[in-house]
């Protein structure tokens, strides 16, 4: 029977000490939370400033940057609230921080501080590395347009094509009134070029 009591006492002591550590380490954890929160804010501000500069250049934030910033944004209110409640929670402690006037409330607060501290540390360590925070936005792909057989442009198409095949010709200008078939001619040249590149 003594062994059962001893085991029960050890289990109860272990349980109590596990819970009490949140109270015993509360002040240290609050100090650490304040420090990592300051570092997290500085990192977030620096990253956002860098991102704003890149966005002015027409770049878009990388997804990993967006995810990291959203994690920071989500945790910051919780950190702020915990640090705001710091004074009233510390006042509950007595006997040099080893006891609380309301054990259960202080335990929950201490556990919350500890878990938030770990989460902030995790976010800090997961900050994307590297100087690249944004990338160019690619334009949407170009769709092939069906070109119909043209009437009256065959000779012009052959002339334009033979000019383009000469080594001396680098640019071919096409001009004229609206509606005479400039765009259609270019579509035909493009299609012919595609067919030729497939054969080559």
TrEMBL record:
Keyword Coiled coil: yes
Residue span, NB-ARC domain: 154-194
Top-level taxonomic group: Eukaryota
UniProt key word Manganese: no
UniProt protein name: BnaA08g26400D protein
Molecular function (Gene Ontology), one example: ADP binding
InterPro entries: NB-ARC (IPR002182), P-loop_NTPase (IPR027417), Plant_NBS-LRR (IPR050905)
Keywords: Coiled coil, Plant defense
Lineage: Eukaryota, Viridiplantae, Streptophyta, Embryophyta, Tracheophyta
Residue ranges that the Swiss-Prot or TrEMBL entry lists as coiled coil: 23-64
């Amino acid at each position: 029977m003594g062994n059962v009591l001893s085991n029960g006492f050890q289990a109860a002591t272990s349980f109590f000490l596990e819970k009490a550590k949140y109270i015993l380490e509360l002040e240290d954890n609050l100090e650490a939370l304040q420090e990592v929160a300051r570092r997290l804010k500085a990192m977030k501000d620096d990253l956002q400033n860098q991102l704003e500069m890149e966005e002015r250049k027409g770049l878009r934030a990388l997804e990993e940057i967006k995810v990291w910033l959203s994690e920071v944004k989500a945790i910051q209110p919780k950190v702020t609230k915990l640090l705001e409640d710091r004074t009233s929670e510390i006042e509950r402690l007595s006997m040099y921080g080893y006891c609380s006037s309301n054990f259960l409330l202080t335990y929950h607060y201490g556990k919350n501080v500890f878990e938030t501290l770990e989460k902030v540390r995790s976010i800090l360590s997961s900050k994307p590395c590297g100087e690249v925070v944004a990338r160019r936005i690619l334009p949407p792909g170009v769709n092939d347009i069906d070109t119909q057989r043209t009437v009256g442009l065959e000779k012009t198409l052959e002339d334009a094509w033979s000019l383009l095949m000469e080594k001396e010709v680098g640019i071919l200008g096409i001009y004229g009134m609206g509606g005479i078939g400039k765009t259609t001619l270019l579509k035909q040249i493009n299609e012919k070029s595609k067919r030729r590149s497939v054969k080559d």
